[in-house]
Amino acid sequence: MVRARSGVTVTRGRKRILKLTKGFRLSRHNLFRQSMVTLIRSRVYAFRDRRVRKRDFRRLWIARISAACRMRGMRYSQLIAGLNRAMVILDRKTLSEVAIHDPDTFTKIAELAKQSL
Protein backbone atom coordinates (compact mmCIF):
# COMPACT_ATOMS: atom_id res chain seq x y z
CA MET A 1 0.00 0.00 0.00
CA VAL A 2 1.35 3.42 -0.92
CA ARG A 3 1.99 6.06 1.69
CA ALA A 4 -0.51 8.92 1.81
CA ARG A 5 1.16 12.33 1.65
CA SER A 6 -1.94 14.50 1.40
CA GLY A 7 -3.62 13.59 4.68
CA VAL A 8 -4.75 15.88 7.42
CA THR A 9 -1.60 15.49 9.54
CA VAL A 10 0.80 16.24 6.69
CA THR A 11 -1.26 19.19 5.49
CA ARG A 12 -1.47 20.59 9.00
CA GLY A 13 2.31 20.33 9.37
CA ARG A 14 2.90 22.10 6.06
CA LYS A 15 0.43 24.82 6.97
CA ARG A 16 2.25 25.38 10.27
CA ILE A 17 5.62 25.75 8.51
CA LEU A 18 4.19 28.10 5.87
CA LYS A 19 2.63 30.21 8.62
CA LEU A 20 6.06 30.56 10.25
CA THR A 21 7.62 31.75 6.98
CA LYS A 22 5.12 34.59 6.52
CA GLY A 23 6.97 37.68 5.36
CA PHE A 24 9.80 35.83 3.63
CA ARG A 25 10.53 37.01 0.08
CA LEU A 26 9.54 35.42 -3.24
CA SER A 27 8.73 31.70 -3.17
CA ARG A 28 10.34 31.20 0.23
CA HIS A 29 7.02 31.85 1.93
CA ASN A 30 4.70 29.77 -0.22
CA LEU A 31 6.67 26.76 -1.52
CA PHE A 32 7.06 24.18 1.20
CA ARG A 33 10.54 22.86 0.41
CA GLN A 34 12.10 26.29 0.05
CA SER A 35 10.29 27.60 3.10
CA MET A 36 11.58 24.66 5.15
CA VAL A 37 15.20 25.32 4.16
CA THR A 38 14.84 29.06 4.75
CA LEU A 39 13.19 28.53 8.14
CA ILE A 40 16.04 26.29 9.30
CA ARG A 41 18.60 28.84 8.12
CA SER A 42 16.73 31.72 9.78
CA ARG A 43 16.67 29.87 13.09
CA VAL A 44 20.41 29.22 12.82
CA TYR A 45 20.96 32.95 12.30
CA ALA A 46 18.67 33.78 15.21
CA PHE A 47 20.56 31.42 17.54
CA ARG A 48 23.94 32.79 16.47
CA ASP A 49 22.92 36.42 16.55
CA ARG A 50 21.50 36.26 20.07
CA ARG A 51 25.12 35.86 21.13
CA VAL A 52 26.49 38.36 18.61
CA ARG A 53 24.08 41.02 19.89
CA LYS A 54 25.73 40.88 23.32
CA ARG A 55 29.16 41.43 21.73
CA ASP A 56 27.88 44.31 19.62
CA PHE A 57 26.38 46.11 22.59
CA ARG A 58 29.56 45.71 24.61
CA ARG A 59 31.56 47.23 21.72
CA LEU A 60 29.09 50.13 21.54
CA TRP A 61 29.35 50.81 25.30
CA ILE A 62 33.15 50.73 25.16
CA ALA A 63 33.18 53.16 22.21
CA ARG A 64 30.90 55.57 24.10
CA ILE A 65 32.96 55.36 27.30
CA SER A 66 36.16 55.82 25.31
CA ALA A 67 34.79 58.96 23.64
CA ALA A 68 33.72 60.37 27.00
CA CYS A 69 37.17 59.60 28.45
CA ARG A 70 38.97 61.32 25.56
CA MET A 71 36.92 64.47 26.21
CA ARG A 72 38.27 64.43 29.77
CA GLY A 73 41.89 63.87 28.74
CA MET A 74 42.27 60.18 29.53
CA ARG A 75 42.14 56.84 27.75
CA TYR A 76 39.54 54.10 28.18
CA SER A 77 42.13 51.64 29.52
CA GLN A 78 43.28 54.16 32.11
CA LEU A 79 39.70 54.70 33.27
CA ILE A 80 39.03 50.97 33.66
CA ALA A 81 42.37 50.37 35.41
CA GLY A 82 41.73 53.29 37.76
CA LEU A 83 38.23 52.10 38.59
CA ASN A 84 39.52 48.60 39.30
CA ARG A 85 42.18 49.98 41.66
CA ALA A 86 39.61 52.22 43.36
CA MET A 87 37.40 49.12 43.83
CA VAL A 88 34.53 50.75 41.93
CA ILE A 89 32.23 48.11 40.51
CA LEU A 90 30.40 49.65 37.56
CA ASP A 91 29.76 47.70 34.40
CA ARG A 92 30.28 49.16 30.95
CA LYS A 93 26.57 49.52 30.25
CA THR A 94 26.09 51.68 33.34
CA LEU A 95 29.20 53.73 32.61
CA SER A 96 28.04 54.49 29.08
CA GLU A 97 24.58 55.51 30.31
CA VAL A 98 26.16 57.81 32.89
CA ALA A 99 28.49 59.27 30.24
CA ILE A 100 25.53 60.09 27.98
CA HIS A 101 22.85 61.22 30.44
CA ASP A 102 24.88 62.61 33.35
CA PRO A 103 28.24 64.00 32.18
CA ASP A 104 28.98 65.70 35.52
CA THR A 105 28.83 62.40 37.38
CA PHE A 106 31.01 60.77 34.72
CA THR A 107 33.57 63.53 35.22
CA LYS A 108 33.64 62.73 38.94
CA ILE A 109 34.07 59.03 38.18
CA ALA A 110 36.90 59.82 35.78
CA GLU A 111 38.59 62.00 38.42
CA LEU A 112 38.30 59.18 40.95
CA ALA A 113 39.89 56.77 38.47
CA LYS A 114 42.68 59.29 37.71
CA GLN A 115 43.46 59.71 41.43
CA SER A 116 43.71 55.99 42.05
CA LEU A 117 46.17 55.41 39.19
Describe it.
The chain is mostly helical and 117 residues long. The protein has one domain (8-116): Orthogonal Bundle (c-terminal domain of poly(a) binding protein). It is built from five helices and no strands. It has helices spanning 8-20, 32-71, 76-85, 92-101, 103-116. The model has no long low-confidence stretch (mean pLDDT 94).
Radius of gyration: 26 Å
Distance between the amino and carboxyl termini: 82 Å
The coarse overall form would be rod-shaped
Q: Can you count the helices?
A: 5
CATH homologous superfamily identity: Ribosomal protein L20, C-terminal domain
Q: What amount of the residues lies in strands?
A: under 5%
Give the CATH class. Answer: Mainly Alpha
Order of secondary-structure elements: HHHHH
Structural class based on helices, strands and sheet pairing: mainly alpha
Question: Care to give the gist of this entry?
Answer:
This protein is mostly helical and 117 residues long. The chain has helices spanning 8-20, 32-71, 76-85, 92-101, 103-116.
